[in-house]
Here is the input.
Amino acid sequence: MADLISVEQARTRICAAFAPVATEMVALTVAAGRVLARDLAARRTQPPSAVSAMDGYAVRAADVVSVPVQLKVVGEAPAGDAFAGTVGPGEAVRIFTGGPVPAGADTIVVQEDTDLGSPTVTVNQGAPANRHVRRAGIDFSEGEVLLHAGRRMGARDIGLAAAMNHPWIAVTRKPRVALLATGDEVVRPGDPLGPNQIVSSNGPALAAFIESRGGIAIDLGIARDDEASIRALAQGARGADLLVTMGGISVGDRDLVQKVLGEAGLELDFWRIAMKPGKPLMFGMLAGAPVLGLPGNPVSSMVCALLFLGPALDKMLGLAGTGLPVIRARLAAEIGANNFREDYLRATLAVDGEGTPVAMPLEIQDSSMVSALARADGLIIRPPDAPAAAIGDWVDVIRLDDIPGA
Here is the structure.
């Protein structure tokens, strides 16, 4: 089957066609999940001066070597304010968590180690120099790069960027992905169903996958199995960063997508790969924009999306790496020898008594069964021409929970 390319070749060629999309500025309050486009450096030092880590008294360590000892309380330093004077011998300043450590003081005695009082306080337990003192810049310093381009911003990153005093950040804009379904037999969920029609699951599933991966899904509708319908709806992909078609790319009389797009100028890279499910996969360029043609079978479509569309979105977003999360697991059932196509078997995952992952391939692997795919925890990877595998043999498994959007 020399005209078929491998899964890895297909992924490499697809990813090579993509680059990060343009950058835009967004408010930090809406930046969760966005990908940082430029390194982010701190705009301030945190904390800007030495502050107390506890409620208590700021004192000179030399004054509390011998305890108990009485010290004169000369002021206080709450968070957000400061004591303007200097702590001298025999003196103390009442201080609160986050309060600036006053000049002259070099340690904090926690209030539990004192008999609270005013105008004097009795210190019952001494404290060495720098006890409970957060030095200036202990968190970070102005100009320090703490968040790097290519990082997807989570809640912790948002908090750090806020502490760095960035109300706006530069992110890659969301890639626009146009989705075009095909088929006379396909209708939208909730629409009237004819006796020989099926409800489209590919479109909603792929739209959810794209949106959860940081893109914008543009629904072009469902084209009929005629050239005029496909041609008309495909026009809606203008301006998109990627056109994804579903169905219509195999060798049947009604598989017209490749023909119609070819007449419009599609430069075909490849259209068949040695994998199962998902052999009819098309990729090329149309007017400078990539086109990814996915199979019509819903399981084939989603497996191909996980393997190829996901990495393409990552490249457009500027995320590093295009690999998939693979773990090693032991088989819980026998598997027959594989043919020349790389196979992705739907499976459930568990752990044995020793904590080792165990993969049980689903009994039926039909590429039309969306319920089986939803029930699966992973995909067992069967390399081309792999021999039969016995119970307990090690296999590679893609954990679906580890793939964003899956």
Remarks:
- The chain has four domains: 7-21+174-317, 37-44+139-172, 51-134, 326-402.
- Residues 206 and 302 are 7 Å apart (CA to CA).
